[in-house]
Structure formats: C-alpha cells, structure tokens
Amino acid sequence: MGYLMAIPGPILVGLLHDRTDGWRIPLALMIVLMVPQIIASYQAGRDRQV
Fold first, then answer.
1. Which terminus of the chain, N or C, has less C-beta within 10 A?
2. Taking each helix axis from N to C terminus, what angle separates 8-20 and 24-44, rounded to the nearest 10 degrees?
3. Which residues contact 12 (CB under 8 A, 6 or more apart)?
4. How many domains does the chain have?
C-alpha cells in the first residue's frame, strides 16, 4: 500500500518542474506534504503503553 501511495510523488514533482520551469513550486509542495508526515511520525513514535 505504501508503494502505491508513493508512486505519484516523483511523477507529480517532475510534471510541476516541467510546467513551471523551476523548483520553487515542486519544493514548496514537498514541504507542505512533509508537515503532516512529521506530525504523524511524532505521534507514532511517542512513548506510551497500549
């Protein structure tokens, strides 16, 4: 499942780079998508008992 979710990422970044002729928008998209990942990983890695 993780691989299926990851496949569109490089393609989307490449398309954005081709369309905008620069890296500003593709990198901004990656930063925006990184924020929820950081929050989720922080929550998943906290020390707690189940």
1. C
2. 150
3. 29
4. 1
